[in-house]
Design brief:
With 229 residues, the chain is mainly alpha-helical. It folds into 2 domains: 168 residues, Serine Threonine Protein Phosphatase 5, Tetratricopeptide repeat; 60 residues, no CATH class. It is built from 10 helices and 2 strands; from the N terminus they run ββαααααααααα. The chain has a two-stranded antiparallel ribbon with strand order 1-2. Helix 4 packs parallel to helix 6, helix 5 runs antiparallel to helix 6 and helix 8 packs antiparallel against helix 9. The protein is globular. The two termini are 31 Å apart.
Length: 229
């Protein structure tokens, strides 16, 4: 069964496998680490991040759905324990998005909508937290998720959110990479090159070597694809 990627283009479809891959890929590496031992909420988020990375990068694909489901429960407990903090909500959203990607198909849409709500709540509390990761993560969902009637995908809304993330973290690897990817997906590949080059030149994030290495490789591949056109 195919999912329509954009209701304005009936020829554009997203297969169940591609949709799942897009969600896993979109969820990867969207938040930054805290200073170790800063506060209980920070320690809790660091633990979520570490467990997420093990699942994302080291677990067998067939085990990820179950593992992300268990981690999502931990993330929800942390969010409920610290309702005034946006950081746990951002990570709960990332984990929900990853769980959706592992699950795949129509059943993933409920989880994606849950992630959307979590990012929106995080933005209401503090959209600048984690260098604007909630804006970036939500923007990715808006251009990766199918549009109406299956989902809430909206390319214009995606651009608005991704640009906000860039304004907060203009030199970050993730906001530059995902804005470039958005430009390619919306047939504006000629504008993507400077953002990809900026992503490749982004400063390393402490404790995020695996995520940075993977994102740089994705940026190199996308840049080569754009230049080959």
């Amino acid at each position: 069964m195919n999912l329509h990627h954009d209701p304005r283009d009936s020829s554009s479809t997203l297969s169940r496998r591609d949709f799942a891959a897009a969600l896993l890929w979109a969820a990867a590496g969207l938040a930054l680490p805290f200073a170790a031992g800063a506060a209980p909420v920070d320690d809790g988020v660091i633990q979520l991040q570490r467990e997420w990375e093990v699942i994302q990068y080291q677990s067998a694909p067939g085990d990820r759905e179950r593992q992300f489901e268990a981690l999502a429960a931990k993330a929800h407990q942390l969010s409920e324990s610290h309702p005034a903090n946006s950081e746990p909500l951002v990570w709960e959203g990332i984990i929900a998005s990853s769980w959706a990607g592992a699950k795949g198909g129509i059943g993933a849409l409920a989880l994606v909508k849950q992630a959307k709500g979590l990012y929106e709540k995080a933005i209401q509390i503090d959209g600048n937290a984690l260098e604007g990761s909630a804006y970036n993560s939500l923007g990715v969902l808006y251009y990766k998720v199918p549009g109406w009637p299956l989902g809430f995908g909206d390319k214009a809304k995606a651009a608005e959110l991704l640009q906000k993330a860039l304004a907060i973290n203009p030199n970050g690897i993730d906001p530059n990479y995902f804005y470039a990817d958005y430009l390619v997906e919306t047939r504006q590949a000629d504008k993507a090159v400077p953002y990809l080059e900026r992503a490749l030149q982004a400063p390393p994030r402490p404790g995020r070597q695996i995520a940075d290495s993977g994102r740089r490789e994705e940026a190199r591949q996308l840049l080569a694809k754009v230049k080959a056109k």
